[in-house]
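Before a computer can learn anything about folding, someone has to put a protein's shape into writing. The three-dimensional part falls to structure tokens, numbers that each stand for a local backbone shape. The protein below has been through that process, and both of its lines are reproduced in full.
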Amino acid sequence: MSKFWFLLFLCLPMCAHMKQSKEVSVNIGSDATLVLKQPKDILPEIQLVQVLSFQFKDKSNSSQVVLSSKDNKLTIVALMPFGGEAFRVEYADGVISSKAMPMVESRFDLKFALGDIIMVYANNEALQSWVSPGVEIIDTEKTRVVRYKSEDIVHISYDKTDRFAAVVNYEHLLRQYKINIQPISQSKP
């Protein structure tokens, strides 16, 4: 009988470790991070179809993007003009997965897209609890500023108080890119 208790004692820490969910984080600038919670805690179940225009220095591009939060899975898909996927980012079960056309993949880390979307749409109270120490989220009805150690890193403006229906202008000051989001449609999946 004592062997049973000895083996149980040895196995308990391993079993506890297997049940722990790993913490996933996305860098949002400098040493600032955003710890990702379960997708259902990030966004309500929703599907947004948008036109996203991206500008980095002197280069710009536009794409239709589908953002979906359903069944505890967050998915971002950017479509190419001929209908194929330029890239896809998915977050579920504590894992971020992504795939992209080679020309897209080499230009930026697709995890940034996930962090950007969360900073645009997550509610302030939740977002504030997910960021690393030193990050401050400053919200008004139609703006959001993300600040790290007293330095602005992200500026976001909305043309409406309903952020899911708003035209969004997003500027990442440290990474020097801008995103304009034009809503096309919104539905519950």
Notes: Residues 158 and 174 are 20 Å apart (CA to CA). Residues 1-21 have pLDDT under 50 and may be disordered.
